[in-house]
Amino acid sequence: MKRLMLILAIALLGAMFVLPLSAADAPKDPITMTILEGGKATKPPVIFPHAKHAALDCKACHHKWDGKAEITACKSAGCHDDVTVKQGDTSYYLTYHKPGMQSCLGCHKALKKEKAEKFGPTKCQDCHLK
C-alpha cells in the first residue's frame, strides 16, 4: 500500500510540472497582429495579450496543432492566409471575427452573452487601438 501511495504521489508531482510545459512555451509578451502582405488594413493592428489566454486549451485557437509540433501562426500558408475574402475557411478576416468560439471576437461575445466574469473586448476600438 505504501508503494502504491508513493507511486501516486510521484505521478501527481510529475503531472504538476510536466503538464504546464505546453503553456510555458507560449509567448509571454504581447503579439502585434498585423495584416498579411497583399492585404489592406482598415484599422490599426491589434496587440494580442497571449499570456492572458494561457489558461485556455491551445487547440481552441490553434485548431490544426497536433500537440507536438511547433505551433504556426494563423496566417501561415494553408491556414487562414487569404486576405482577399471575408468568408470561408482560409479567410484571414474570419480568423479573428467569425461568430462562435473559434475566433477572438466570437469567443469574447459568446462569453459575454453567457455573462462570464471575464470575456474580453467586443468592440472594434477595444482591440484596434490607435
Give the helices and strands, then pairings.
Elements: H1 2-18, H2 21-24, E1 31-33, E2 46-48, H3 92-97, H4 104-113, H5 124-127
Antiparallel strand pairs: 1-2
Keywords:
130 residues, mainly alpha, Cytochrome C3, two-stranded antiparallel sheet, 2 strands, 32% helix
Brief description of this entry?
With 130 residues, the protein is mostly helical. The chain has helices at residues 2-18, 21-24, 92-97, 104-113, 124-127, and strands at 31-33, 46-48.
- The largest sheet has its strands arranged as 1-2
The CATH H-level homologous superfamily: Cytochrome C3
Per DSSP, what share of the residues sits in E-state strands of 2 or more residues?
under 5%
Remind me, CATH topology?
Cytochrome C3
Helix segment tally: 5
The residue ranges in which pLDDT falls below 50 over 5 or more consecutive positions are 4-21
| Class inferred from helices and paired strands | mainly alpha
Mean pLDDT value = 81
What's the end-to-end separation, in Å?
63 Å
Task: Estimate the global geometry from the Cα principal axes.
Answer: globular
